[in-house]
Structures are given as structure tokens and as C-alpha cells.
What we know:
The complex is a heterodimer.
Chain A: H1 3-13, H2 19-39, H3 42-71, H4 73-80, H5 86-115, H6 124-151, H7 155-183, H8 190-198, H9 201-213, H10 220-230, H11 233-260
Helix pairs in contact in A: 1-5, 2-3, 2-5, 3-5, 3-6, 3-7, 3-9, 5-6, 5-11, 6-7, 6-9, 6-11, 8-10, 9-10, 9-11, 10-11
Chain B: E1 23-32, E2 35-45, E3 49-54, H1 61-69, E4 76-81, E5 84-85, E6 96-99, H2 111-122, H3 131-135, H4 151-163, E7 169-173, H5 181-196, E8 200-204, H6 208-214, E9 217-222, E10 225-231, H7 232-239, H8 244-252, H9 255-266
Parallel strand pairs in B: 3-8, 3-9, 6-7, 7-8
Antiparallel strand pairs in B: 1-2, 1-4, 4-5, 9-10
Amino acid sequence: MSVVTTVxxxxxxxxxxxxxxxxxxxxxxxxxxSVLRLTGSAPRALVSLLNVVLLIVPLVSVIYGVISWxxxxxxxxxxxxxxxKRSSLFAALYLGLxxxxxxxxxxxxxxxxxxxxxxxxxxxxxxxxxxxxxIALALVFGGIALLVGVLVDxxxxxxxxxxxxxxxxxxxxxxxxxxxxxxxxxxxxxRPMLALTLFNPVDLTRxxxxxxxxxxxxxxYTGAVMHRYLGSLFGTLAAVSGLLLWTxxxxxxxxxxxxxxxx
Amino acid sequence: MLVEPRESVVTGRAxxxxxxxxxxxxxxxxxxxxxxxxxxxxxxLSRGAVTAIIGPNGAGKTTLNKALLGLVHPDxxxxxxxxxxxxxxxAHRARIGYMPQSARFPxxxxxxxxxxxxxxxxxxxxxxxxHLLEAFALxxxxxxxxxxLSGGQRQRLNAAAAxxxxxxxxxxxxxxxxxxxxxxxxxxxxxxxxxxxGRAVVITSHILSELQExxxxxxxxxxxxVAFAGTLQALQERTGATSLERAxxxxxxxxxxxxxxxxxxxx
Lengths: 263, 267
């Protein structure tokens, strides 16, 4: 049995006792259930949940990831003293972190919709994008969490850095883009704006959702730019490719740092 | 400086080759930034012997242990395990049992799950010494989550995890810290039994009386170098002291070590 399978089996056996993940699943369930009851329809509920997905999933993933990394640090040293390759162990730790988070998000989102029999054909595309975007963000920010965990030894400084990165990518970045856009309003900014969107996984997810739900006005400036210039199959493909790349980069950088560092 | 192999040991089962060291360390160096922690360690660890690694804080004991386990990447030198260079190799770790100083296991997992995980990662070739779980009085707690275990129970689980898979080399970092007298005595009995079995034990501890009772070989690290390596008797002859504690104190005040400290401070 491979290292990844062995560690994941161990994680799965202990999932029922993993309070953090259970709490996240319960929170998502309550949120979706409440929004569904308030709005009365699945499309409106999903649109209302979009900003929550864009903020909460990255926040929970990055903070839970850094905290659980530090809680397991000494045990990870014990695992590294076993006959396992560092790259395999990192892959196992990464999947052991993001799979339960992504699963908790999916269950918390889907269960209320299923219970209310609210999943109809007209909502499928928006639901798929919301679900896929949330899972992608869990992968991206789970990767960022492990990268921060590997690079920063001090737990508090690690959590502070993780929070700063979350704030940068979810809030500050969009503000910066808006500032650039207003400052250079007299210049042709389409391409630079597009490039700036590609550099941020949260903006990419937002853009994907905007293109499906036509809620540009609710989704910030970069969302509007994406909708205007990439509201097409090409735009969707570009955003999906960018997001896939983003799921790969932090995990890849984390693995490299994990292989090189001393414990 | 090398640890001389203990005299040939014969157990009830087979003669043990104590002439060929299980682990040979040559010119091992390691720095963290500008701080040199290991400055050219030469060491041989024999089968059928308990080797005590002693030294003041910052002497390089933990770094040396971690280099043997592959947790730390050395800057220079070689480590041979049974004649094979451990650099880039992971197979030798299936033959090592490691007991870290503090046992921080995942709180949600049960002891049984953790031991199963370690066993699965090591593969099933090596036999499990199931009797250990009973000896360390863990059999009653196997299915409880770690968070429900006391500090002593966790440390017993830590010990059991190191001994369970009949390793050829045991690396024990402050192993009796946090253990009650019964568990501590059981652990020492197991260390002797492992040694008599022809396997090697390396123990790091600040409790020198305990080391005097157990160790066949003493390695004294100072400022990242081996300041003394040999039998307890050789150390006593060199310093004229009868207790290990006194012998180490005299060794640290010796001109040789003062000169070593001076050289490090100048560097």
C-alpha cells in the first residue's frame, strides 16, 4: 500500500473525531439552509452564497491548515523517521488536509439543497461552478497553508502570515486593481486587468461565477472586467486553466520546501 | 574519534558481529546559518551495545540523531548504515526505532490506529513484538483517543512505537522523562534485552546515573565535536572519577575542552 493511501486511510478512520472539519461542515450546512429558507429558491440562494464561498472557504482552509500543520508537526517528524519519501508524505499530508475540507464544504452546500429537493436542471451549471470553485479554493488555500507551515516555524507568525495572505487575495487585491483602474482610467486597461485577474485565485473563481450567474455588479471590479472581456467559452476555459494552475503552484512550492527543510 | 566495539557478545541464539559497526559516521558537519552545530563527527555504533550520547545543551546530540534518521540534511560527511550510505536512501529507516523526547500524537487518533499507521508505513516484513503493549500496560487503552491518555500513558505509547517493530537500531531521546518508576524499569529491561539480542541502542539523556547503569559506550559531544568516545571504564581511568556525573564534570573542565571552546569562540 502506498504512503498516500496509508495516511489517507488513517485520516478517514479518524474523520468522525475531527472536530474542525465537522464544525466546518455543520457551519456550511446551517448557512446554506438559512439562505435557502430566506430566499426561497436555489438560484437566489446560490448567488447569495457566492461571496460567502469566496471569503469563508479560503479563510477556513488557510487557518485550519496552518493550525493543524503545527499541531501535527512533531508527529510528522515521527512519520518522516519511517521509511517514507518526503514527497509522498507531503502529498499524503496535503490530500489529508484538503480532501476533508473540500468534502465538508460539498456536504454542507449540497445536503440542504438535496433535502429541499432544490436541485433542478436550470440551477445545475451555477451549482457546479459554485461547488467546483469552492473546492478549488480549498485546494489553493490548503496548499498555501502547508507552504506557510513548512516555511514559518513559529505558529503565531504562521497564522498571522496566513491571515495576511487571505486578506490580500480576498479583499486588498481587488481594491488595488480598482485603484489601478481608476488611476489609469484614460488608458486601454483591458489586457492588464485580465492579467491581474489571472494572478489571483479568488478573482478567478469570482470571474467564473460571474460568467455563469450574470451578477457582475455584485462581484467586484475584476469580476466585471472578466465578464465584459471574457464572457465566452474562451473566458471560462482561461479562468478554469488559471485556477487549475493555482491549485498546483502552492502545493508544488510547499513540496519543494518540505523536501529541503531540516526538522 | 571512534567508539571501540564492545567485546564479542554471544546470546543463546547466535554469535553477534560486534566488530563491524552497524552505523559509521565520518566527518559529519551541519550548520544552521552561521551557527555550526556539528563540526566533523566521527563515530561508530556497535551491535550489541547501549551507547549513551551526552553533552551540554547545543552540543549537537539532537542534530546527530536527526541526521541518522534523515530529518536533518548534513552539509558534509557520510553516514553508513550497515555499510550503505543513507543519503538519498529511506530503506534503512525500517530498521530504526525512534523515540522522540516528547510524544505529541494526533489527539483524535487512538493508540491502535497510530501503531497500525506506523506498521503500515514500515511494511510488514519485520515482526511486531505484541508482548510490548502488555508490558507497557497499553493494551487497555488501545482504543481510546490520545486526548484521553495521561502524559505517562502517551510516553509509554511513544516507547512502544519505537520498540514494537523489532528495530536493529533504537534511538531514544530522553526516554524515561515522564515515565513512572514501573514503566521506566520496564523500558530499561527492554533496552538491555535489545542489546543482548545483538541490536544497537543509542540513548540521549540528562540523567547521568541512569546512563551509568545502562551504557556500554559513552560518547561525549562538545561544541559539535566528539570530545570523548569509549567505555565508561576508559572515561573513569582518564578522569580518575568513579561516577559518570563527576567524570563528565572533570572532562568539561579539562584543558583539552577549554582549548576546544576557545577555538570555537575564536572561529
